[in-house]
Design brief:
This protein has five helices and twelve strands. The relative contact order is 0.19. About 20% of the residues have low confidence.
Amino acid sequence: MKGPALLLLPILIFGIVLVSCSKKSQPVIAEKNEAKVSPKGTSMALPPCIIYKTKADYRTNVPVSLSDDKTRITSYPDVSDIRKQANSVNPQELSGGYLLDNRGIGPDVAFLSITYQDYIKQAKTPSADDLFRQLLDQDPLLEMYQCGNRHQYKDIIRELNDKIDSGFLSDCKKIK
């Protein structure tokens, strides 16, 4: 009885491995202007299309997020993330003085006195307290809109400029 059972064991193990390896992963499903669904069914938000105007020119300054009472930094980029993104971190210029966000800023944005170029030269990411001491403007926004998500546009710059130039920002959600 031991002999045949020992022969069946490797076959059984091989069968289990074969079945488990043959399962295909489910594709990521995306509906237009909706969240993507990951293989496990969890929702992944599409990147929002944020346009904004600031009181001064902060295009090269590092943005951070502040707490509601503006007494501490709640979110800031890691130096390595900025290095990976290189020049794509800077917002893109649009008509009417608007900028297209490329970093994921929100209405709680503030800008540091340090530029992206100087930030990436640092050996490690500074602490939130160190960065707080480098705040340049805690209330830099004049206006901010969410114009859907970035994937709904075929030519995002041209389409947003058309929207701005024709006065159709009312189609966007005003955030500030």
